[in-house]
Amino acid sequence: MKRTLLIVDDDLSILKLLNFILSKEYDIVVKNNGIEAFSWLEDGNMPELIISDLQMPYFDGQSFVKNVKISGFYRDIPVILLSAAHDLDTQVSAMPFKVDAHIHKPFNPTALKTAINQVLQVYESSNI
């Protein structure tokens, strides 16, 4: 059975690209913003990993991830931020919560897959 990844991004081309490069290995759920993504989680869904854009309308990536991380139910879901923000490293280091990885857009698909595998391995080994 494939593991489920929740991908949150308002850019349709990024959603299509991520679905294309990841759907052979994972079940992909795509949401256009943090509101849709959090609603999906609240419906009882639990992905193995969240990939979220940082800059989105209607509940941006930082607000979405903050709400995931302060939640008792979802805080252990690993998160990878994917963003074109020129100061992504600075923004991530200033966040009051931990993200498991962050990757700049445009991204190398192989590097993204490697990051996903590493984050999932760390998560699995910490839950043994």
TrEMBL record:
Top-level lineage group: Bacteria
Keyword annotations of the record: Phosphoprotein
Residues that bear 4-aspartylphosphate: 53
Domain Response regulatory: 4-120
Protein name from the UniProt record: Two-component system, chemotaxis family, response regulator CheY
Gene3D superfamilies according to UniProt: 3.40.50.2300
PANTHER family noted in UniProt: RESPONSE REGULATORY DOMAIN-CONTAINING PROTEIN, STRESS RESPONSE REGULATOR PROTEIN 1
GO biological process terms held by the UniProt record: phosphorelay signal transduction system
Annotated source species: Mucilaginibacter gossypiicola
SMART domains named among the record's database cross-references: REC
CDD domains the UniProt entry points to: REC
